[in-house]
Each structure stands twice: as C-alpha cells, then as structure tokens.
Amino acid sequence: MSASGIRPGPRGRAVVTGLGVIAPTGIGAARHWESVLAGKSGLGRITRFDPTRYPARIAGEVPGFRAAEQIPGRLIPQTDRFTHFALAAAEAALADATADPARLPEYEMAVVTASSSGGTEFGQHEMENLYQQGSSWVGAYQSIAWFYAATTGQVSIRHGMRGPCGVIACEQAGGLDALGQSRRLLDTGSRLVLSGGTDASLCPYGLVAQLSSGQLSTEDDPARAYLPFDAAASGFVPGEGGAMLVVESAASARDRGVRPYGELLGYAAGFDPATGPRPDGTRHAVLASVIRRALADASLAPGDVDVVFADAAGVPAEDLAEARAITEVFGPGGVPVTAPKTLTGRMYAGGAALDVATALLALTAGVVPHTAGLARPADGCAIDLVLHHPRRTGPRTALVLARGHGGFTSALLVGAGDRRDPEK
C-alpha cells in the first residue's frame, strides 16, 4: 500500500478532472469550445514562415501564443515550441482540476505524453547554425530540446512529479495511447497523471517531412483544404497545439471534492501497416477490431455509444476505410459521427488528446458538435455525419478514434461526468 493509502489492484475508475487546451481554435478549453460550437475555423495561410515555395501552404496555427506569458523565461531558450505548448496546457489543466502538486505525494504523481516529431523547429535552427556558422554555434540544449521525451521530462520537473513518467511515439494515435497508459498508472499506485500531447512542426523542416507522406492538401482555400468524408476531399491540413488532461482515480477526485468532466471507460490499440485499399476490401478490418475491443474493455455494446469523434484523415481511401469500420460495428447511420478537427487541422501527437478534451466538453454540455465546412458526403461513406449545426441530443458516451502514420490505430471510450459548467 502506498503512503496515500491507495492499494494497487483491480482496475478502478479513471476520471478526467482538468483540461488544458492550446489550439488553433483558441487558447483555453472555454475558447476552444466556443469555436467548435460556432464552427469557427483556425485554418489559414501559414504565417510562421513564408510558405510560397511549398506545395502545402495552409495550416492551423495557434493564435496569440506568447511563451513569455505562459512559462518561466529560463525555459524558453531551453525548449521547443511543442514543449512550450505542453507546459502551458499542463498548468491550465492543473488549475482547472484545482490540483496543487505541492500538496500531493511526489512519487504518486505521473506524467505520460504523446510525441510525434519532437522539437522540430528547435532542431532546424540548430542545424542552420551548424551548417552556416559551424559546430561551436550549436547550443547545448540541442541535445535535449529536440528529443521526443522532452515534454514529459520538463512537465515532470516543473511540477515535482516523480512517479512513473513516459512518452508514447505513435503519431496521431499517441494521444489516445497516452491516456490509455494513464489508466494503467492509476492501477499501479499513481494518484494523479498528467497526460495528453502537443505538436509544433510548422517550420520549413517540419513541413518538408510531412509532405513526404503525400497526404497533405495543396488547396489554397482554407475553407476547402481539409474536407474529410467529403466528395471534394484531397488530403489533410497540418495543425499545431494539443491538450493536456489531469487523470486521477475517482476516489482521489471525490476526496478532493472535484467534479470530473468524465471517465475513461475503455481503450484498445492495434496496428495496420497496409496503405491504400486492399484487393479483398478489408482495409477497415483493423480499426473495426480495435473499436470492438475498446467496447469490450468498457463492457459496452455498440448501442451504448452516442457519438463517434472520427480520425478523419481527409484522404479518400482512408476516410472510406474508417467509414466502413464504423458502419460494420454500429450499422449504416447507426451512430452520429463528427470531426471537429476540420477547424484545427490534424495535430499529430496533439490531435487525439484535443479530440478527447472536445468529447468531454461535448458530453458535459449535452451537445454533439458538427463537422464544419463539408458540403457533399463522399460515395460509400454511409455514416451519420453531423453537419451544418450541433445536435443537442444529450450524449453520455463518446468514442474517439485515431490512426497514426505507419499503421498505429487506437480507440478510446469516454463517459459523461458530473461537471456542470463546460466554461470553467
């Protein structure tokens, strides 16, 4: 038994008590949620550098983020923008959860984050120094700031969290995998886990790396650049930002008198290395299997799910595979499907974590947000896609899906909590 009286044993209830959001739709959970309900897009022409010479010029950039106003000044030159986002989001999540790390046992607080490309922009600048000025111009912090585990380390150091710490490198699926790991950590004695993910790869080096996938949209109109499940889909738009969540045991939240946003009910992951359609038409099989295993983990039936937050690749073959997986499990039009990430772009390590935060806000508000910007569903996508305006259907359970580059595939089920004010 730990010093706090928590005995590792059978799986207990894992609840989310705090949300920290840094996204193209706004800084803070309340502003992000307002944008989602209004269908207010954060997509636009890249401004962090001149994108004229690149085939993809549209992205979701976080507006008005100033690191000097969000994190200690000494950390700014030591860390990359993706870590700046995570430090700010972690601070906001802890404040939202009214959790003071100084009042909790240091070895019972854990950190697990998702990472995709690590500190891309920081690494680019140091490589520029190397090739233009020489090795003596490369800073000492290059050795740690680019590292994909830098965020976990900096968050744990900042808040004195000395329990289990780790990082999941599964690209877009990583945000769900990190939250799945947070449940396991609660079962082995951790009291509170900071979990989620952020990304910040909107720099020339980062964009070139993303272009290699061949899946980025080259459309110059932000309103038409990212249209998942639509007949005009032509790829996806990259985004930056993400979300950090405070996950703790239901008993811990109750002892602290905190009302949770919701509960992590079930999780599963799989791997599908195939790309493009299969001759036998089974491209959707891995995702369908992962959904079923997540339902089994939560002891839920398909009819218990009120909304699906789709991965929404924006690539026609990938969209069709996802639609078929959803249809196979839930039936044609059997569950409302939404993809608010059309407002932010795909945010890699930060995308799925933000989807979970959005899903929890939706459950709290009793609203299914719509997928903005779509006009004509693609042939074969026989899903009940929520379009044009939100649906006030009082959802209680949401399924979040995520697929990462290379085949990582994950699903997470969340249930409504008793938090009454989604603007908090």
TrEMBL record:
The keyword Transferase applies. InterPro entries: Beta-ketoacyl_synthase (IPR000794), Ketoacyl_synth_C (IPR014031), Ketoacyl_synth_N (IPR014030), PKS_Beta-ketoAc_synthase_dom (IPR020841), Thiolase-like (IPR016039). The keyword Repressor does not apply. Residues 11-416 form the Ketosynthase family 3 (KS3) domain. Pfam families: ketoacyl-synt, Ketoacyl-synt_C. Keywords: Acyltransferase, Transferase. Belongs to the thiolase-like superfamily. Beta-ketoacyl-ACP synthases family. This is Ketosynthase chain-length factor.
